[in-house]
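[[Local backbone shapes]]
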Amino acid sequence: MKELSDIAVVGLAVMGENLILNMASKGFTVTAFNRSYDKVERFLSGRAQGKTIRGADSIESLVASLEKPRKIMLMVKSGQPVDDFIEKLVPHLDEGDIIIDGGNSQFEDSDRRTAALAEKGLLYVGSGVSGGEEGALKGPSIMPGGDERAWPSLKPIFQGISAKVADENGELTAPCCDWVGDGGSGHFVKMVHNGIEYGDMQLICEAYLLMRDLLGMTADEIKEVFVEWNNTELSSYLIEITADIFGYKEDGKALVESILDTAGQKGTGKWTGVTALHLGVPLTLIGEAVFARCLSAIKEERVDASSVLKGPKPEFKGDRQAFLNSLKDALLASKIVSYAQGFALMREAAKEYNWKLNYGAIALMWRGGCIIRSVFLDNIKTAFDKDENLRNLLLDEYFADVVQNAQQGWREVIAQAAVNGISVPCLASALTYFDGYRTANLPANLLQAQRDYFGAHTYERKDKNRGEFFHTNWTGRGGDTASTTYDV
């Protein structure tokens, strides 16, 4: 083992432990640190035994174990715990040392920390890490941003341990990791990743609900559908594990059927929705995915409501296979809308925060290792390689064709769900967004008239230049004074 470690990882929960093992397997020497040293000792005598991993029992010994510039990666709970540990570290570090936050921190916190530590001569990196336990061990998707001066030192490690996808020659050498940008951009991209993950998962759940409650399919039959879909353009990690879940049995019964229908969440989907509202981006599908989890959480209230509020009894009379084909189209088209909204949010954030984001590179980072990895991320990369200023994925020729060809089945699914009283908020929201986005004249003219009527908020006219605002005295009782115009 080298006399000094290449990097230290703080926090020996699932992600921290597996990242350390991943680093050691790629030839790096790692120092492991945890608030309670007994956990470090158990790790060293267990999974880390015989590997290029050493432990530290204090911050002083942690810092002393590292080669310069020191690189310390925090895998601790986001929020105040990160700030608390940084505060403990700073007095022991030298100019040019690097602190990396690999947790799910809010991007505003990473912005603040990057600036604050730069004033102390230290380099801060806020890095999203996706892939769960298996990804951390075998190769995650890593999305680093912050102080770019840290990247040359981190690049060999991060790209060395990240997942790999095929390069231009078909060799598995392209790393699912690249520098994202300044400040909190790395954590912002990870936040959007998680928002899309929320949407993907809810869409799959809605497809399952239609198969179960409308088509009356068994868990084994549902499993076979997901296995089949995973060999199509829907191929993805989430589709793959969904098939596995329906195949897992306990006492001869699919375990999934015994799991309570109340979903948890850690906040990244909510952050995505709140940020979209702040930036004025219609992130409708991901918002519905978050609210679907909130609705699932009021289980007892839903049970009570089910005995009071009655709707149609689901009854399907058509061709089951034809409907499954339509459901596949609806899922694919809705998934594309989810990614389109996510990339639109990143574009708006890049303008707001002066980030230079490479959207094709981000698609490549998500192509392997992460939870939302799927085959059509290659098509997203191609779309942005063709037009780096692409305003919306739906305007790319490939995605426009796919979504338009899926329209008939998509609409059939939503109609059947509505007629049979089955809740599909994300599938329906995706179609509504698509129809709104392709509509040249929305009814917001009436909305602006209403706002001007009751609040003198003014409006623009079709027959005048954009940016020229007008107010009408609608009742004859008002005056000519108008409110200041502003947009969120």
Q: What stands out?
A: The mean pLDDT is 94. DSSP finds 19 helices and twelve strands in the chain. The first strand starts at residue 7 and ends at 10.
